Backbone:
């Protein structure tokens, strides 16, 4: 078999969902021993295409060729047999099983588990060595950090004899360090002759790791290029179909009064883990305060406490001169009424009720508002009108206020949430992961909206795990590590290295004694 | 971003009538086919049985009266289960709540019968709702504040209710000098109007509770979909984290939904005790609370669906007793088998035909799209 035969080839693949043409005449050729990127906005058809390759869906037309032979892949088993492995965006692991048990799940090899486990153990030791994928096979998956769980998924695919590995948005849940580690693993896999297909909407990753890249837009392949012959701007343009600004332009901030002041905030969660340690913050009008940090270092809890969805264990929050933690305790609904907007980190978990229509989601958190009520009755007409208004201003597609929230793509769902909170014209807006899972065109739009609000004299707090985003949006950046704010700096002085070090807990500022405390505690 | 793009996990689009009418009908048909086979096995003609069943339920004025009388109970319990469903709760306790409501009705009718009818009847109705509501709100409270699973607690509350009523009927409320565990007959002013009191129809247990049930169905629709309280209950039911995010208290809404649920179940006591028996008796709830679960499931927790499902079960109750009476090989137990099959197919096996029917309609649509 020569290296000239592509490992995977698609010929004129078409797929319809109902009336929707999700994949149009897709042809693709992936060379053996390369990392091939597939990039496109959310909803461009990347995941559908890969689901066809993996046998979740069948193509309505077209052929799949593996090593030059036409393959009929009508279920994932057939795909695995053909040497394709897939690492899903959301891991398919049983948390209460060990790594070993998870890996042999479905390929136990006979009725007696012991034999299969023993065989798997030796085989895994070999794989781990060959691809330098260190995982403790006897650890419970539930105890592993996200980066390691992903490694388990990769091992699982390799154990099943995968020659072609498909990774669907693999870095969405990873810290920058974990992502770098993943890339090293992928490089090793390539060097060992495996073929890797990387689906992503992040340009940085494509540029960093792939050999070739295919760009999808609106269900069609619009370009196949060699990564070294292209650049981020060019790819972004191909994805969106127009030129996009990757860096937000913003005038200098006109900083006003402090609207929200946090002093000595501590939070101990239900498991007894102290998530926040002596947090002090000021959120000022006309300014965007960015909170950076590797996810899980207390940012989420900080955001929820500020928004009133959870109560701190100690400390004070003064909002517009009023102590909202103690003397006049307020919940999320009360806070909204006095001008505190909140875009949550996870729109599916808390920002939206997915089975509800868009217009029902428009009033979530504001269902008491006189704007949406006439006496005891919810005013449907004004709900729909408000929703239509949001849809128009934020360019939500499809523009249907009666569509279920689950029927919108990720970016459009995020726009619905942002529109709801921003159109209430809050004085302070708390935003968690403003552009998580949102495509480039929409990111640009969302950033512009946030800057516009800032320039209108509003105070904005942005929590994001994307360093680029924090750096380009913020005027001031607070970095969190292990529940502390380990440092605060002017955005002008921030560099990726500097922030990266602070995020890793290695702060060079003199006034960050909390880190020292922490060292002493351990 | 393309409007046409379809995301992973986007819900399937099939015509509404498929969901609301075709699938329930297919489920029903499957249940009847299987029932027919059972009837053939016991040696009778299934078509004859179906004829008797339908005639028995709708064939003549008496039958219709009885059918609608049963339907009334199923509307109450169906709505009761449905409101709890909207809050994400599985209220298995409609039976016990209905039973307790009977006590509320009886206490008012026995001890307040010196009042004029226009006072005692509303008070008794209110008491029915209140007794049922409290009996449901306690498990609601335990779920909301203590995390005790509502399914377990409501089942236990059914037993407690049954024991309490039995004790009271045997030891306390029993008619003076009476031999059977029941109260004395209520004074006639407390009785609800029968339909045959004001319409030229034969004597049946159908009373104005039926009209009340229809009225409540409308109120249910308004409350759930057109008030902020209904909205909040649905948010809690669909996504508790989003509720927290929106500042909606899950605990409060769980208790509220259970309170309303119990009140709705409590109206069974109005229909049965105030409307028909005019005395508190043992086991007057006759399984209506349990069948209410099937009614709510079949009716998709929507009042229109619940009415249709309640009518179906009302017809089965009435037509079924006719069937047991008319046909030698079919006894009361066989009728329960048929009801059980319908509950099985429309409740438990709801998803048996659904994927196939849905994918058929989706294929149809993609073929049209491809041709276009």
Residues:
């Amino acid at each position: 078999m020569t290296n000239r035969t592509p490992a995977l080839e698609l010929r004129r693949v078409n797929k319809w969902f109902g009336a929707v043409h999700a994949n149009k005449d897709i042809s693709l050729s992936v060379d053996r021993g390369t990392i091939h990127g597939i990039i496109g906005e959310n909803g461009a058809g990347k995941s559908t295409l890969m689901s066809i390759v993996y046998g979740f869906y069948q193509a309505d037309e077209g052929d799949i060729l593996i090593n030059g032979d036409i393959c009929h892949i009508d279920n994932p088993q057939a795909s695995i047999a053909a040497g394709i492995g897939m690492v899903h965006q959301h891991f398919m692991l049983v948390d209460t099983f060990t790594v070993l048990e998870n890996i042999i799940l479905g390929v136990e090899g006979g009725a007696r588990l012991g034999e299969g486990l023993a065989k798997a153990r030796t085989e895994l030791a070999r794989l781990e060595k060959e691809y330098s994928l260190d995982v403790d096979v006897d650890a419970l998956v539930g105890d592993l950090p996200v980066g390691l769980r992903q490694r388990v998924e990769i091992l699982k695919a390799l154990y099943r004899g995968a020659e072609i590995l498909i990774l669907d948005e693999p870095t969405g849940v990873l810290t920058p360090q974990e992502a770098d580690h993943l890339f090293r693993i992928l490089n090793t896999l390539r060097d060992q002759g495996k073929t890797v297909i990387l689906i992503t909407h992040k340009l940085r990753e494509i540029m960093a790791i792939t050999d070739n890249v295919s760009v999808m837009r609106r269900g069609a392949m619009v370009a196949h290029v060699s990564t070294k012959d292209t650049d981020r701007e060019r790819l972004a343009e191909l994805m969106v179909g127009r030129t996009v600004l990757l860096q937000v332009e913003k005038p200098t901030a006109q900083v006003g009064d402090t609207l929200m002041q946090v002093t000595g905030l501590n939070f101990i969660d239900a498991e007894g883990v102290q998530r926040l340690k002596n947090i002090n913050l000021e959120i000022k009008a006309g300014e965007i305060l960015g909170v950076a940090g590797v996810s899980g270092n207390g940012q989420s809890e900080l955001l929820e406490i500020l928004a009133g969805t959870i109560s701190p264990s100690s400390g004070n929050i003064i909002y517009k001169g009023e102590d909202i933690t103690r003397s006049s305790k307020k919940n999320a609904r009360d806070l909204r009424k006095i001008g505190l907007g909140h875009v949550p980190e996870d729109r599916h978990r808390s920002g939206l009720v997915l089975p509800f229509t868009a217009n029902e989601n428009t009033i979530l958190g504001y269902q008491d508002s006189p704007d949406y009520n006439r006496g005891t009755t919810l005013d449907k007409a004004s709900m729909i009108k408000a929703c239509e208004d949001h849809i128009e201003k934020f360019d939500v597609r499809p523009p249907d206020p009666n569509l279920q929230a689950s029927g919108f793509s990720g970016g459009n769902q995020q726009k619905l949430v942002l529109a709801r909170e921003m159109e209430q014209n809050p004085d302070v807006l708390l935003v968690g992961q403003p552009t998580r899972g949102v495509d480039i065109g929409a990111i640009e739009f969302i950033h512009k909206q946030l800057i516009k609000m800032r320039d209108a004299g509003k105070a904005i707090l942005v929590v994001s795990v994307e360093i680029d985003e924090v750096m380009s949006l913020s005027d001031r950046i607070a970095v969190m590590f292990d529940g502390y704010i380990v440092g605060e700096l002017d955005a002008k002085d921030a560099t990726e290295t500097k922030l990266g070090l602070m995020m890793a807990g290695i702060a060079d500022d003199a006034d960050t004694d909390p880190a020292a405390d922490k060292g002493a505690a351990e | 971003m393309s409007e046409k793009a379809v995301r992973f996990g986007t819900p399937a689009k099939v015509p509404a009538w498929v969901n609301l009418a075709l699938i329930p009908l297919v489920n029903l048909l499957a249940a009847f086919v299987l029932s027919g086979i059972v009837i053939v096995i016991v040696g009778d003609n299934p078509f004859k049985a179906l004829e008797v069943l339908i005639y028995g339920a709708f064939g003549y004025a008496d039958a219709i009266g009885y059918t609608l009388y049963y339907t009334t109970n199923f509307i109450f319990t169906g709505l009761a289960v449905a409101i709890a469903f909207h809050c994400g709760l599985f209220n298995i306790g409609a039976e016990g709540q209905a039973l307790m409501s009977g006590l509320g009705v009886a206490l008012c009718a026995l001890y307040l019968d010196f009042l004029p009818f226009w006072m005692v009847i509303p008070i008794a109705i209110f008491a029915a709702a209140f007794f049922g509501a409290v009996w449901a709100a306690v498990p609601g409270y335990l779920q909301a504040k203590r995390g005790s699973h509502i399914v377990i607690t409501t089942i236990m509350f059914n037993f407690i209710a049954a024991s309490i009523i039995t004790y009271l009927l045997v030891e306390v409320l029993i008619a003076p000098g009476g031999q059977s565990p029941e109260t004395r007959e209520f004074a006639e002013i407390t009785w609800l109007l029968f339909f045959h009191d004001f319409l030229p129809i034969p004597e049946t247990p159908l009373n104005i509770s039926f009209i009340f049930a229809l009225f409540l169905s409308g109120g249910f629709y308004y409350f759930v979909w057109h008030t902020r309280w209904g909205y909040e209950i649905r948010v809690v039911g669909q996504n508790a984290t989003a509720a927290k995010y929106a500042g909606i208290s899950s605990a409060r809404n769980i208790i509220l939904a259970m309170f309303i649920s119990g009140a709705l179940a409590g109206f069974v006591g109005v229909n049965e005790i105030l409307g028909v028996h005019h005395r508190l008796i043992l086991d007057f709830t006759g399984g209506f609370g349990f069948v209410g679960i099937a009614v709510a499931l079949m009716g998709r927790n929507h009042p229109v669906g619940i009415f249709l499902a309640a009518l179906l079960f009302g017809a089965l109750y009435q037509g079924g007793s006719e069937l047991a009476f008319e046909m030698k090989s079919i006894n009361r137990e066989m009728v329960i088998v048929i009801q059980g099959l319908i509950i099985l197919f429309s409740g438990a096996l709801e998803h048996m035909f659904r994927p196939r029917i849905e994918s058929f309609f989706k294929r149809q649509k993609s073929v049209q799209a491809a041709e276009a």
Summary: The CA atoms of residues 35 and 211 of chain A lie 5 Å apart. DSSP finds 18 helices and 22 strands in chain A. Chain A has two domains: 8-240, 258-351+427-521. Confidence is low (pLDDT under 50) at residues 510-522 of chain A.
